[in-house]
Write a structure and sequence with these properties.
The complex is a heterodimer.
Chain A lengths: L1 H6 L9 E7 L2 H13 L5 E4 L7 H4 L7 H27 L12 H28 L22 E6 L7 H9 L4 E6 L4
Antiparallel strand pairs in A: 1-3, 1-4, 2-3
Helix pairs in contact in A: 4-5
Chain B lengths: L2 H9 L16 H13 L4 H27 L14 H25 L9 H22 L25 H34 L3 H11 L6 H34 L11 H27 L8 H31 L3 H12 L3 H13 L7 H4 L2 H28 L14 H24 L5 H12 L12
Helix pairs in contact in B: 2-16, 3-15, 4-5, 4-8, 4-9, 4-14, 5-6, 5-15, 6-7, 6-8, 8-9, 9-10, 9-14, 11-12, 12-14
The chains are: A alpha+beta, B mainly alpha.
Chain lengths: 190, 470
């Protein structure tokens, strides 16, 4: 049963439904977020051309996990880089260059620094993509043509509806909060 | 928000600043329009002509590389004792030029310098292309670039590992890390703007192409939440990285025992020189670009003047480096060290030396005066001089230190061959080709950041109370 549902994950009846609502300004959108959440809609998101002032709090988001990911990457790079050099130059194949000891800590610092930065940066970048679930070429919100303004000059609220809801209550709520353009979109069956 | 109030907030933003950060009354719609306009516009004759010239330069580069690969390094003017010449000069010069991009995008970001917003995209792109040009030279100088992968630590059947105590291997790690991190940082910053291009485009092909690179960005608040932190952290990591890269480049020289190279002042002196030449290069490109792309309202005189101030400051640091180098050479009492500096000023390459002093020490001094800091022709000419001067500096450091070493019997002169010159000019062509393509297909200004800046300026407190601006 569960397996069957998973298999038909992209079929029309199971597709997610969203109510989209455009607000006049970033401030209006942030205010609306608080009020929509008060009414019990927690699966909401904002869409704006730049990060909204106070947007994180309005969505009830906690601390980002990115710093921990970066730290893990950085530490891996640091120890990995240093131990790599110790293994290669001091243990596996020691070469005497200018009488310097095979394990020469000062000479290993520059590369240790570089591998730290490299792995930290790579983990930030790919960690971010993973957290944001990008690349995601298709998203139900793209079904509404007007939503294209979200990355240019529009301030949109999206409410992901629970299964079985037709979204009338959510649409009524955002309309009451002053939304200028309201639309209900369904994930495409394709 | 009343329109009049907005206009007042933007134009009169700061009582103590003569020039605003954004000219005129802008909102998200107008900014989307005018910052993306140059991407939608058909290439004009000026662009096409520049592109043709740049493309010919890239062709010359391919030719010079081919000759180098077929004939070997013997096609260059390098000899013994001058084993490093044009190639390493060009390498250091290009890497240095890249550093301004990281400085503007990362360090000024951490210091919350608002004026960086309009110019960071532009200079980050420059970093990437400059590092590409830089990397080419040591690669070709290995003589067998097809074995370049030997420098990376991989389990080879030769059972040999790289020699990690060599600054040249440090360089491999520094430059490749720098390139990778610069690309990631640039691309991360681009994602919202690529989405903006996708959704502002009129044609389905553009929509699809920009859509692929935008990765499905939809300006989600849950995304911005992590994105902001990730961007800040990348800026934080790029800051020490940029300092480390030119420090390590300077180690190529400072760790060697050649008089004229073996000095502890090299790392800071190289980093200052890198920023100096990088800002000059940004200036040389920005002055024409803001004119031709219609970006004068976001890249204002305020930006240009601030950049000129940085050119002056780093120029003074570089001059201090020259002074200290000469002082230490004399004060050390080491006759070989002193001879190198004496030889730079009086030897056969003295012309390059005096050109360097003129361009790097004298020319930036004009920026003490506001007239020159805000005069477009003067700042453009000065930036070209600084570019030339910094190239001469690298030539002076490398070639004059090598050509007359410890034993007069081993002395020799270095003269570049046509291959050397074509390689150098070819990289300028390649750089320009990449840059012109960038200016055509990608917004030259970080659109989403400028919109955010516009929003911040709108919410600024009353003009009189704000003292700090730039």
């Amino acid at each position: 049963m569960e397996h069957a549902a998973e298999h038909h994950g992209h079929a029309a009846p199971v597709g997610k439904t969203y109510v989209l609502a455009r607000f006049e300004s970033g401030e209006a959108l942030v205010d609306a977020c608080y009020k929509v959440r008060e009414k019990g809609f927690e699966t909401i998101d904002t869409h704006s051309p730049y990060p909204l002032h106070g947007g994180d709090e309005a969505l009830g988001l906690g601390r980002s996990r990115v710093p921990s990911i970066a730290l893990a990457g950085g530490l891996t790079g640091m120890f990995g880089g240093y131990l790599m050099m110790v293994y290669m130059n001091a243990w596996n194949w020691p070469i005497n260059v200018g009488g310097r000891p095979p394990h020469a800590p000062p000479s290993f610092i520059p590369i240790t620094f570089e591998t730290t930065v490299l792995l930290a940066s790579l983990s930030i970048f790919f960690g971010l993509l993973a957290l944001m679930r990008l690349p995601q070429p298709y998203h139900a919100t793209f079904e509404h043509e007007g939503f294209r303004s979200a990355v240019n000059d529009g301030f949109w609220l999206s409410v992901a509806l629970p299964p079985g809801s037709d979204g009338k209550d959510a649409a009524a709520l955002v309309s009451q909060l002053g939304a200028k353009e309201i639309s209900t979109v369904k994930e495409s069956a394709e | 928000m009343a329109a009049a109030e907005h206009a007042a907030a933007v134009s009169g933003a700061d009582a103590l600043d003569t020039y605003p950060l954004l000219v005129g009354k802008q909102d998200n719609t107008t900014l989307t329009g005018n910052l993306l306009a140059h991407v939608w516009a058909r290439p004009d004759k000026g662009w096409l002509l520049s592109f043709m010239i740049a493309l010919s330069g890239s062709g010359a580069l391919v030719l010079a590389i081919t000759v180098t690969l077929v004939e070997g390094i013997g096609a260059w003017g390098n000899n013994i004792p001058v084993g490093w010449a044009f190639d390493i000069t060009n390498f250091v010069w290009w890497i240095g030029i890249g550093h301004a991009g990281t400085l503007i995008s990362a360090i000024l970001f951490l210091f919350q310098q608002r004026w960086r917003t309009a110019i960071n995209r532009f200079s980050e792109a420059m970093t990437i292309f400059a590092v590409m040009c830089a990397g080419l030279f040591p690669l070709l100088h290995t003589g067998r670039p097809w074995f370049a992968y030997f420098m990376f630590p991989y389990p080879s059947t030769l059972e040999m590992w790289p020699q990690f105590k060599s600054p040249l291997i440090w360089d491999v790690f520094a430059v490749s890390t720098y390139f990778t991190v610069s690309v990631l940082f640039w691309y991360l910053g681009l994602i919202p703007d690529l989405a903006s291009l996708r959704d502002a485009s009129k044609s389905p092909i553009q929509r699809r192409l920009y859509g692929i690179f935008a990765l499905g960005w939809r300006g989600s608040g849950r995304h911005w939440h992590n994105y902001k932190v990730g961007y800040l952290l990348l800026a934080g990591l790029s800051t020490p990285l940029v300092v480390s890269v030119h420090t390590i480049v300077s180690f190529d020289f400072a760790v060697a025992l050649i008089p004229g190279w073996h000095t502890t002042i090299f790392p800071p002196y190289f980093v200052a020189g890198a920023v100096f030449s990088g800002f000059a290069m940004v200036m040389s490109w920005m002055v024409p670009a803001r004119h031709f792309l219609g970006l004068k309202h976001v890249i204002t005189m305020r930006h240009l003047e601030n950049m000129n101030k940085i050119i002056l400051a780093t120029g003074m640091l570089v001059s201090y480096g020259y002074l200290m180098e000469h002082w230490i050479a004399w004060y050390s009492g080491n006759q070989f060290e002193w001879f190198v500096f004496f030889n730079r000023a009086t030897g056969p390459y003295r012309g390059v030396y005096y050109l360097m002093l003129f361009c790097n020490v004298l020319v930036p001094q004009i920026f003490w005066f506001k007239y020159f800091r805000t005069s477009i022709p003067w700042m453009f000419i000065a930036s070209i001089f600084v570019n030339i001067g910094m190239w001469c500096e690298r030539f002076v450091i490398i070639v004059t230190s090598l050509h007359r070493d410890f034993l007069p019997a081993a002395w020799d002169m270095y003269y570049p061959t046509w291959v050397d010159i074509t390689l150098f000019l070819g990289t300028i062509g390649f750089f320009s080709t990449c840059f012109l393509l960038f200016l055509k297909f990608i917004p030259a200004v970080a659109v989403s950041e400028v919109k955010e800046l516009n929003e911040e300026l709108r919410h600024r407190p009353a003009p009189v109370t704000v003292v700090t601006g730039a």
